[in-house]
């Protein structure tokens, strides 16, 4: 345990992968194949930012360096030995071409690719290649179509993704409570109209509806989870700052942004695209939550995230519609859920996370912000809602608060988690919540653990 802690301090969690177990015959017979600079790409497959990627250099004389920390290394048969700060450890690995893969005893995998001239560019090239592979697979799962709105004759592209059918364009129906950006019809043609929340709730055509948070969540999971969904759903052109996506499934998200509320407009310059936040995609959900994708090429700009319920409802945002009525979706979900365990109880619970200002960030030395913590928490809330509904069938009517304290390592994984307190009176449920949260993952940072304490309220 002391050795692991020391190496984690020296190398960061991602490099702890070197305490692992995989075999490479090529490298075992030719250790010189390992000589060179390697950049970590595991868990950071999109961004390629050098300040977040771990670089290790292995020299031919058996020495090396990671950051400013000296190391020594050698190989014997299928084993790799590393010594850092006087502590030696045996390591196993797999070398395939220019990619080194390390697998931890608990099954976690991290990968390094051999740097060319510039490690940052190498990581970016690797990330792009992996994203293109994933996009090619997603394209085979999407079915494109079209729909004509009988109210005004406008035709929209559609795309069926798994069991959801989405409009592949933002809604452009002229309703009271909506506007074109700068009152220019050309902006409505390209980006769709912008709606306040009250109007958005009933703006979709008959047979379609404003998506729920769970439906946005299902879309995110289909597109590859929160860290890559943005780049898969972004249009392949039309974004600023090299922020174009791969448009893997034809969702074709564009940076439609938002329009200020009436009270905000005196403080904002009309026609200023930046001040009006045209540069991001922001959509309403049926609960008033806002889902969005940022502009730019960094990982944070490729996240499809739930921005919470704190937006001014008089702001004007975009609308995407999903096929089917909300009632039909709910009935099917309840029917499927009840048949899964034969109990036949239509449980319906809810879960609430605290706002960012109420999180206790503890004494960790990591650089993660409260906003970064909550971006993942909000995106993962359907996990906990599903668990609550499952246990409500076993114990109808129970409610309460569960407070968890967990440590997020630089690599993004939760390395320890504990239940601080609970008022549910239901230990099996509490442990199910803890075990689910333990699987959540954040983006990679350079170093330092983050230890937040968060209270979830179930009603």
Largest sheet strand order: 6-5-4-3-2-1-9-8-7
Low-confidence stretches: 1-28, 43-52, 266-278, 296-301, 327-346
Question: Kindly, what is the distance between the CA atoms of the first and last residues, rounded to a whole number of angstroms?
Answer: 40 Å
Structure class: alpha+beta
Output the number of helix runs.
Answer: 10
Largest pleated sheet: 9 strands, antiparallel
Radius of gyration: 24 Å
When the domains are counted, the total is 3
Roughly what percent helix?
A: 25-40%
Give the amount of beta strand, in percent: 15-25%
Overall form: globular
Number of strands: 23
Mean pLDDT: 75
Question: Features of this protein?
Answer:
alpha+beta; disordered N terminus; Lipocalin; four-stranded antiparallel β-sheet; 3 domains; 459 residues; nine-stranded antiparallel β-sheet; 25% helix; Fusion Protein Consisting Of Minor Coat Protein, Glycine Rich Linker, Tola, And A His Tag, Chain: A, Domain 2; globular; 24% strand
Summarize the structure.
25% of the residues lie in helices and 24% in strands. With 459 residues, it is of the alpha+beta class.
Describe the protein in words.
With 459 residues, this protein is an alpha+beta fold. The protein contains 10 helices and 23 strands. It folds into 3 domains: 2-129, Beta Barrel (Lipocalin), CATH 2.40.128; 141-323, no CATH class; 341-458, Fusion Protein Consisting Of Minor Coat Protein, Glycine Rich Linker, Tola, And A His Tag, Chain: A, Domain 2 (2-Layer Sandwich). It has helices at residues 2-11, 25-29, 119-139, 185-191, 197-200, 213-222, 226-233, 326-341, 370-394, 427-437; strands spanning 36-40, 55-58, 63-66, 69-76, 79-84, 87-91, 94-96, 99-103, 109-114, 142-148, 155-161, 164-167, 178-179, 194-195, 208-209, 281-284, 290-293, 304-306, 322-323, 351-352, 400-408, 414-422, 453-458. Strands 6-5-4-3-2-1-9-8-7 form a 9-stranded antiparallel β-sheet, with helices on both faces. Helix 9 (370-394) runs antiparallel to helix 10. The radius of gyration is 24 Å and the shape is globular.
